[in-house]
Every structure is written in structure tokens, then in C-alpha cells.
Design goal:
The structure holds two protein chains of two kinds. Chain A contains 19 helices and 24 strands. Chain A is globular. Chain B has a single domain, classed as ABC transporter involved in vitamin B12 uptake, BtuC (Orthogonal Bundle). Chain B contains 14 helices and two strands. A two-stranded antiparallel ribbon of chain B has the order 1-2. The chains are: A alpha/beta, B mainly alpha. Chains A and B meet through helix 11, helix 12, helix 13 and strand 20 of A and helix 9, helix 10 and helix 14 of B.
Chain lengths: 500, 338
Amino acid sequence: MTLPLLTTHNLTKTYPGVRALDAVDFDLMAGEVHVLFGENGAGKSTLISMLAGANTPSEGKIYLDHHEVAFDSVARAKAHGVYTVFQEFSLIPTLTVAENMFLGQEPRMGILIDHAEMRRRAQEIFDELGFPISPTAQVSTLSRAQQQMLEISKAFHGDLKVLILDEPTASLTEREVDHLFHFIERQKAKGVGIIYISHRMQEFKRIADRITVLRDGAKIGTVEMAGTDEAALVEMMTGRQIADIYPTIATEPGDVVLEVADLATPGVARSSLSLRRGEVLGVAGLVGCGKSRFFRAMMGLGPRRSGTVHLNGHDITGLPTREIIRAGLYYLSPDRKHEGLDLAKTSNENLALNVVTSGAPVKRGWIDWRTVRDTVAEIATRVELPEDYRARRVSQLSGGNQQKVLFGKAFGQKADVYIFDEPTVGVDMGTRAALYLKIKALAEAGKAVVVISSDLPEAINLSHRILVFANGQVSAELPRAEASEDTVLRYFFTESEPVQ
Amino acid sequence: MSDATAPAQVTPRANPIKTLFIRVGVLPFFLGIALVVFSFMSDKFLTGQNLMNVARQSVYLVLVSLGQMLVLVSGGFDLSVGTAIALTSVASALSMTWAAGVFDSVFLIIAIGILAGGCVALIVGLINGVGVAYFEVSPFIMTLGVSSVGAGLALFMTGGIPISGLPIAFGDTFGFGKWFGVPVPVFIAVICIVVMWLMMPRTTLGTRIYAVGGNIKAAHLSAIDTKKTLVLAYVLCSLIAALTGVLLTARVESGEANLGGTMALESIAACVIAGVSLRGGIGRVQNVVLGAFFIVMVQNGMNIARVSSYMQMVLLGSLLILAVIFDQMRYRMIMRGA
């Protein structure tokens, strides 16, 4: 019986109002691929952020090689041989690929950096991984997939004991995934312990040894991959039937409200789309497949190459974003910190902004704050934001409550079509269920709703119709009845060349 | 049951000093310390007459700081307010001396002068605003550049010599006159304060400026014309500076290219001490008025205590840096949720 390489004991992380991780005991053997499995907000990212040194535990201990360790920084974790590839890249766009790979540990000749050696070693690692990246390229010129490959490559030098990969294949093609898995096998053979986060069961079945399932911050159990079937895993993950979370949205399609013809953007080929009142359209695809870019171009938030957009019969093509919003097309950003909310202000103040800009309570330039207050209170109740949180600054709220505020902003602005881009990122189950009911209410009140989601079950189960994007193209349009997870997943990968 | 009781305060009550600090910033503490220190240094300081004096002197900085606040709240800052004052002074003086040779009506001559000053400031504000909003030049570089351009033009037009020969009535009214028993500059400043105090929280323009400074992308997605809002903030700031320029010109009874030289630093210091965040989105009119009053009071106190003007520069710079350090601490506390 071998001893584990890495163990956590009673590991807990609390944020105001949220227990993000609840007393988790976890262990990783040398030479093992251990998959963390769970829904968004289940605590996977919180767990690895503490193992990676990006976050410190509120309670509990971490042992590496049977010694207690306290990682107060990512650099400290790295020094112990624990390397993490996060979903968010930590690359410096103005430096070259090789410079990024060896940042902070450059090979030297005397006091000078040995650039030739650096390039040679970078090339060696890329050859071994089979990643087509030039060590001399500037990072800002790389595609998203190449940047992801570079992030992964950064792990493969130095004294590696534990490798943590957070959805490493999110923007890789199948061929690239094969290369990656081949490399993981070799690292395993060397005795490296690998923690692997992924939503894709098909994929990790090929490499996983054990799987730990998390739900709502707690560990549900650890099982051997061999001998565990998918159904059992899904049940552990959700703890309930999927139908419980997703409401049934009645469908009575009305008039066409949004008509998009031949819209193309850099990276997304010409696509058309029409949407009826009362309809929910799910949009699925990998990160970077162009699904978000397509809708952002529609909103005037990104470049548009060609095509027209009509809302209620009016041409809104190329209008400034604010006029598109006023015309009745609302876009909920996936990035609530940078694009969604003013973190230093309270929930009420954030909600008030859209009530004010919608123009309703403004008389000759003066704001009628009493009306605004009443409307804000009504909206906060509608999105089920607890009263205690309404006068608190948004930065102090949990992700779930922040997302409720973001949804509330959408209700301040009157619209006919709502585009929700990743509406439940980092949100717990309870809040998700609440937000889904809001989407149901909107659709049944005759609004048209678009749900763009990288969470496949969400995109499928909320919608009446699914649009799948792959490599910058619409690869399929399926009615709900034909859209099982397997069918939709097949359209995620196309062998076509990415659209430039 | 829980509905009937007062909102339960579960968290332990924070200490009152911390609460005050988070609410209004460092100003009450600075103000208290200054009052105590200067009263000890001279018994002439804490007299009604001296404080009235401070109030009268602070009018100009109060005005400029109100404009500066607009730009700070929008998330930028304006280093060219001093230049706007100098340009206004030169432009209004030059046009008044020109108009004096063409028209007879003193009223018309003064109106032309004020109009000319306003137009020049409008151009300065537009250039700043368009540069920042549309060409995305950083506010620091944009206003620093404009400040050099403006100062150069003002000196070029005057050759560095003050322009005298302004209508007597101009200085008598706007420099030393009284309306309803109140000195005209004070009267005008009070009107500006009231207008700003109503505008910032109660009109859509004020709300838009707060929103743009708080999170410009979120504001964009809330159907706000962020570029127009930024331009307006810079233009209003410049126009208020122009108003100050006219009042100062009347006070010194000549057009001078070196008026307002220290206004940029002093107005930023006044705002930051008054709790206007350098990150944008946060700031209150009434506090800014107090902040400007504080700066002038410190200068007055140092004059009474015979601190040399060179040392006064040292102290003012230090105060600004100290205020920014406290602003950082306050921001962290706000975000952490104290």
C-alpha cells in the first residue's frame, strides 16, 4: 500500500455568505490521474485554487509528501513542484513564447540571459508535446488554442510532482487533445500526480484512474473509473434528476422578433438566424468557437464584417450599442466583474442605473428617485435578492447573488429579446434554479430569449431550439426533441479549418 | 416575527472612527488636526474674522475643485485646469481691451470678454474630452499635453506681460463687488455649488458620470453614451475653470498668463482629501467644497505661522500623497466590506 502524494484534510473555504468548499478530504497518488467532477460552482475551482497557492484555506490542512504545507502564493506552490494550468491564462502578451515559458527561471550565461538555450529548450518541449508553436513568436499573435497549449507547456519543465489541469482541453482540437493525453501518460509513468478537471466524460474516461465528485462545495465521494458508469457519475454530480433543475418552458411561438441575415465577424462565418416571441434558443459550443462573438457583433460590441440585424422589423445593423439596447435587444455579459457590475457600489445602486437609463422615471432631466427606489425594490424581489444584501456593496456578495443583481439590471431595461451569455457562470445550484425560472417567466411573457452557454445541459434543457457553433461556424441547428447531449457534442468538433 | 423586529445587525458594530473613515474619507481627521495645530501655533488663526477670510479666499479653489471632481468621478483627471484659467484670463482681457476701442457700452465690453474666455475654455475642454473619449489617450498625457500647449499660447499672446486697461466696472463688480450684501465671487460659487449638488445625484447626467467612472464597460452595456459623457465631464470642468479665470482676472484687474499655476495640484488634492476616488465613480459635492476649504485653510494657517512659501509647497505635496495612501486603504476596506 503506497502512501498518497498529496492529501487535504478538512479543507474549507468560506466567503461572506457562501461556503465555497466544505470540509473536503482529498488524496492524490503518485502516477495517478485523479479527475475532479462536478457542476459549475460545485467547488472544483475553489479546491484547486488552494492547492495551487492562488487562495488560502479558511480551515483545514494540505499535506505534500506527508509534510504539512501552506501555499501562500502560486510561486510557493511551484517551488514545491505543484504546477497549475488555470483556465485563465497568465501570459504576458508582449513577450515571446520562449520568454513566457521561462519567465523567472531563464537559463543564463553569466549575468546575461541565454536566449538561444531558451529557444532550444522551448522547442524541445513543443516537439515532445507535438504542439505547433514557434518559440520566437510573440504571444499576442497566438490563437486562443495556441495560448492554451503554451500554458500547458509551461508546466513541463522543472521538478514537477503534481500537475493540476483545469479544463485543459476546452479550446483544443481532437488531435491536440491526443497529444496532450499522450504526454499525460508519460508524466504518469514518471510518477507525477495529475489532478484533472473536466466536464467531458467521454474524454476523461480515457485517462482517469479515480474520480472525486463534488457538489455544492462538499465531497460526495471518490470512485475508481474502472467499473463506474456514466449514469452513476451524473447522479452523484447532480444529486437529483436533471428535470428537477430545469423548468419546462411552455412554447407558443409568436411573431418573428429578431431576424439576423448573413452576419459575419472576424472568426465567424456568415450565419443567419430568426427568433420568435416566446422562444428560447440555446447556443452551445466550445470556448472560442465564436458563439459569443457572433452575438456580441450583433450588439455592436465587436467587429461585424457583413450582414444585417432586424428587430421588430426595424434595421438596427451597425447602431451604437446603447441604441440597440433602447430598441429592445438586451445583452447580459458573461463577465460580471469587468463588464457587468460596478463592484464598489451597492446592489441597489447597480440596479438603479438601468432603471434610470431606461428613461422611465426621468422628468425633464430630473430623476424621480422615489419611483426609482420602488422599481429597484420590485426588481430585487423579483430576482430573489435577499433584503440584507440590497444595500451592500456588490464586491461583498457571493457569485450567485452578484449574478442575481446582473439579471436584475436586465429587468430594469425594457427589452423584447434577451441574450444571456453564460448566465450561470460560477453560480450555485439554488441560484441557478431561481435564474432559470426568470428565463421561463420572460419566455412565457412573450419575450424571446437566447441562452449562450458552455454548460451543455443548460443550453439543451432550457431551450426550444439549439444552435451549435464549431470553429466559427454554425455546425448544427436542432429542435429540442433531437438534441441529446451526445448528438450535440458530436457537432462541437468539426474537421473544418477555423474561420479567419 | 422577523418582519416586526428592526433589521437585525448580526455583524458586530464596527468602531465609529472606521465607519466615519469609510463613509467620508480622511477629511474630518485632517480638518481636526489642522484646526488644533494652527490654533496652537497662533491665536489669530481661530478667529471669526480669519475664518471668514479663509472662506472668501477659498472660493476660487472650491470652484476649480468642483470641476475637477466631475472629471475625477468620470475616472480621469484634468491637469490643464490651471491653463484653462490662464487662457481665459488672457483671452477675456485681450478681447475686452479690443472691444473697448470699438464699443461704448461697458456692459457689452464685459460681456464680450466673458464670452471670449468661455469660448476658449470650451475649446480646451472639448480637446481634452475628445482626446480621452474618442482617441483613448490617457487622461494624464492628454491634459498634460494640453496644459503645455495652453500655457505656451497664453504666454505667446501676451509676451509674458500682464494685459491691463480693463474696464473699471469689471474689477469693481466681479472682483470686489457685492450682490445682496454678499461678495460677488462668493455669490457665484454658492450658485455653482447648489447647481452641482443638485446635478450630481439627481440628474441623468450626474448618474451617467458616476456610472462611467465606476465601470465604463458596464455603463456601456447599460445603454449609456460613455464617450459623450466623458466629453461633457471635461467640458464642464473647463467651463468652471473659465468662470474661475474670469473672477481671478477681475480680482487682479489684468489678464495674466501665470494665473492658476498651482490649481491643478491643489484641486486634485482637495478632491482626494474629500474622498473622491482616483479610480472614479465615487465623490460627493459637499465634501469637495470642504476639501477645498481645508486646503486654503492650511495655506492660511501656514501664512499666519510664517511658514515659508517654499515649505508650503513641500507640505501640500506631502498632503496629497498622504491622502492618496488613505484613499487606497479606504478603497480596500470598501471592497472587503468593513
